[in-house]
Design a protein that fits this description.
about 525 residues, 21 helices, two-stranded antiparallel sheet, single chain
């Protein structure tokens, strides 16, 4: 009966979204129902992760009783179960923030159903075992994200939503074209069956083109350079609880796609690993410099995401067991850090005379928000990778994985080793620069209203959600060994894709790699 656990993290928020639509005349009941459903889904995903870890093999659910590869398959292995739990854990804090937020958009009668749909799409994308249903779930994320951003209090919300709609159309085309090429070449869309058939016949002429289209898709979804241009506007203009999810966990659907692509479907495409290293290095440089040069706290952390995603892609590109473990660890820790920092930026905006996180408006407001200053300092140290925060554990693991790989000769080109390692240190310095600039601007400089009528609002959004996330960042920095060990276990699972294939297709499945 463990198989039913795989569908619960998807089914609970999806069903709850439908019920929440019926509760529109009762806004408070709708809000608490939605939060309760999200919390229940998170507990279900935690239990699913516990079950997968205890079983030592993937847990598979065949929809409608149809055997793979003919039916729709949901698969929870160490990677998908971990990222599904990570996403829903952060969404729980997103709902907590929304319950205490002052945004008008949060009180719209479709906000919570759309927020649940966003969580459904993200979780379903990570648990699906069918590449076409990955497309379906990604589209659910896109539609929900566009609607939530368009209803934002920010006047640029509709413009940002339209930009995201356009770039998502390009990504959808690329994903569908890549899926179509794989189907033409191999006659299946089940990822386990695809992996088996590609291993038996890697010379199909459509395979390189399919990999290129999937690569472009996952780069757009994770806002990787040079497909990042939509991200700062979209994440800055959306309501704070939404932007905290978009920049911390929603972009991870692209990371998940690359992890599946490079470890399950086409693990022997060397040019893809090299491309990921180059993409990661470009993101580290551009994201750090972009964050330093921007004028808005939320926009600053949106650019910061480009750099953090870059680090993850360097780890994926190196492709060693330790670097993949570091990439998973970085992915998990970054989700907690970035959501907290965007919530704190939203808190400042909620108390500003004019609702915005622009530094020209929130300058000097910090003396009215000392508790937020402490949380911002701790979160900034985590983002920069300063001990004893969890960000330090992530960057140290990535650095060590590169050193070990170079010493063992696993990375042939020295440029793919020394340059990323040097940039890890440089990026930490850049992060300290823009974090301390924000701290000095908001909590050190005097408050200078632009007119006598401008005053700091006595109350703003609740600090409960960012405080809880920062507490987790401290805990996972001081006591990070369990998560480090589990990340290594996840890497070990990814190194044995035949376990995934045989769990889905049965023990008779062949594996020729």
């Amino acid at each position: 009966m463990n198989e039913i656990l795989v569908i619960l993290p998807v089914l609970i928020p999806l069903t709850a979204a439908a019920v929440a639509m019926l509760l529109r005349p009762l806004p408070r009941a709708q809000a608490f129902w939605s939060f309760g459903a999200m919390l229940t889904a998170c507990v279900a995903s935690a239990y699913l992760l516990w079950t997968v870890a205890g079983a030592g093999q993937p847990v598979v659910f065949q929809m409608g009783g149809w055997p793979a590869p003919f039916g729709i398959t949901l698969v929870a292995d160490a990677l998908s179960a971990t990222l599904a739990f990570m996403s829903q854990l952060v969404f729980v804090f997103g709902f907590i923030y929304a319950l205490g937020a002052k945004d008008k958009a949060v009180h719209h009668d479709t906000f919570y159903p759309l927020f649940l749909a966003l969580a459904t799409g993200l979780t379903g994308g990570m648990l699906t075992g069918d590449i076409f249903n990955l497309f379906v779930m990604v589209e659910l994320v896109v539609i929900s994200g566009i609607a939530l951003t368009a209803m934002s209090d920010d006047r640029y919300g509709p413009e940002a939503a339209f930009k995201y709609f356009l770039i998502s159309t390009v990504a959808s085309f690329c994903l569908l074209f890549g899926i179509g090429l794989l189907y033409v070449g191999y006659g299946t869309l089940n990822m386990a069956d695809l992996a088996q058939r590609i291993s038996a016949d890697p010379g199909q002429p459509v395979l390189p083109a399919a990999v290129v289209f999937l690569t472009v898709t996952f780069m757009i979804k994770s806002a990787a350079v040079p497909f990042h241009f939509w991200q700062p506007d979209f994440h800055t203009a959306s309501p704070t609880p939404v932007s905290a999810m978009l920049s911390s966990v929603v972009v991870k659907i692209g990371v998940y796609g690359f992890l599946r692509l490079t470890t399950l479907l086409v693990p022997q495409v060397e040019w893809l690993n090299g491309a990921l290293i180059v993409i990661g290095v470009a993101g580290v440089i551009f994201g750090g410099l972009g964050a330093i040069g921007t004028h808005n706290a939320k926009r600053m952390f949106a650019y910061s995401t480009l750099a953090q995603i870059g680090f993850i892609y360097v780890g994926v590109g190196w492709g060693t067991p330790l670097s993949l473990a570091a990439a998973v660890l970085f992915t998990f820790n970054h989700a907690l850090i970035k959501s907290a920092m965007l919530m704190l930026s939203g808190y400042l905006a909620s108390r500003a005379p004019v609702k915005t996180a622009s530094f020209s408006v929130v300058r000097g407001m910090g003396k009215y928000a000392p508790a937020a200053g402490v949380l911002f300092f701790l979160g900034g140290m985590a983002l920069a990778g300063v001990p004893p925060m969890n960000g330090f554990v992530s960057k140290l693991a990535l650095f060590q994985s590169g050193v070990v790989a170079a010493q063992a000769g696993l990375i042939e080109s020295e440029a793919f080793f020394w340059v990323p390692l040097a940039l890890i240190g440089l990026s930490s310095v850049l992060t300290l620069v823009y974090v301390f600039r924000a701290l000095m601007t908001v909590w050190w400089e005097p408050f200078q209203p632009r007119s006598p009528e401008e005053k700091v609002k006595p109350r703003g959004d609740s600090l409960l959600a960012p405080a809880g996330l920062v507490a987790l960042c401290v805990a996972l920095g001081v006591w990070g060994q369990p998560l480090v060990q589990w990340s290594q276990d996840v890497s070990a699972w990814m190194a044995q894709p035949q376990r995934y294939v045989r769990a889905v297709l049965g023990p008779e499945a062949t594996w020729l790699r």
